[in-house]
Amino acid sequence: MSLAKIKQVITHLEEAKDVVFQIIQMNPSKTENTSYISRPISFEPADRMNDFLTEIQNKYLDRKKGFDNMFSACVSDGKTVYFLDADNALIETEYNLLLESLAAPAVEVDPLSMKAIASMISFSIEDGDDTLFIKLVSMQNPITTLKRKFLCNKGRFKECSEKVLNLRTSIDVIIIGNRVYFLTMAGERLFNMERAYKKLCADYVVAIGDSGVIANVEVFSNVACRGHNPRRFVAYNERNLEQLKNRDTREEIARLFSVKLTDGKLDATDPKDAERIVKILCNRGMKDPFREEAMEVSGARKWS
User: Fold this and answer.
1) Which of 98, 124, 80 is nearest to 24 (CA)?
2) Which end of the chain is more exposed for a tag (fewer CB within 10 A), N or C?
3) pLDDT at residue 71 in the model
4) What distance in Å separates the CA atoms of residue 101 and residue 168, rounded to the nearest whole number?
């Protein structure tokens, strides 16, 4: 019940200890590991962060606009928020690199010169006999250049176009211990997950192409590796591919999901058919038990 865990943390924000605010610069790469630069920020008055945590708490516990209405896109069955453990292959490398940057912050760097992509509040709270280490991440640039803003000076207003630090109450990622909760999909950018999705997809596509169940593997590979499809391969089901190695099964699947067959193989020549094959392999294609019709679903899990 991850949503309950998150609510527990937010409910006890006023008990936060050792609060640290940092801004994060991320330098992604298509060929090398992602690098991070973190810069801790000191505030005056010193307890300003505690007041800010209270603002966040009020926002997310609001009865009308809080958790229960905010994250319907990320919550299944009303209880579970999309999460990954820190050792998941999709984020493990970047997660560890991020922690390294937090442990060795760039305290001499001018924060206003950074190309920051996020801000993070780190703290701990007590949970019975345990201590929970928490990180709240907002995936919005915390550095803002003022535009059309004027300061009053002796009755006259002078334009102010300086860069300022902007505290944002919107939270995209919550890290509790070694578990990363994604409250919005924007949080995936923190770990450069698009690259991880593409690598995962490419590995699976090679195995699918070698299986001999698909005609025109080149078109299938092109379709599978573009757009939103690489992310779909997180739900790739190897058992589906094994079953498709049976010719009778392929013929039944082709009939049900309107995929063309050529020489007994699922034909991916038409990009629409290639897209359907991706969905079938990644648990997006299911059968309506009442009408015996093909249905596209957002996800699937074993009936209980």
Assistant:
1) 98
2) C
3) 59
4) 22
Q: For residues 193 and 231, what is the distance between their CA atoms, to the nearest angstrom? A: 9
Q: Which two tokens stand for residue 290?
A: 């009442």
In the chain, the amino acid numbered 52 is F
Nearest to 116 by CA among 185, 40, 188: 40
How does pLDDT run across 166-210, given as a tens digit for each residue?
999 999 999 999 999 998 889 999 999 988 999 999 999 999 999
Report d(CA 281, CA 192) in Å as an integer: 24
Q: Confirm if 278 and 230 have CB atoms less than 8 A apart.
A: no
Q: Which among 18, 17, 21, 19 is positioned nearest to 111, based on CA atoms?
A: 21
Torsion of CA 84, 87, 90, 94, to 10 degrees: 110
Question: Can you give the C-alpha Rg of the chain in angstroms?
Answer: 24
Rounded Cα–Cα distance for residues 184 and 74 (Å): 7
Residues of 135-147 as b/e, b for ≥16 C-beta within 10 angstroms? bbbbbebbbeeee
Q: 148 φ, ψ to 5°?
A: 55, 40
Buried b (16+ CB within 10 A) or exposed e, 16-38: beebbbbbbbbebeeeeebebbb
Is 8's pLDDT higher than 60? yes
In sequence order, which ranges of the chain are alpha helices (DSSP H)? 2-11, 48-60, 67-70, 92-103, 193-210, 217-224, 229-232, 238-244, 247-257, 271-281
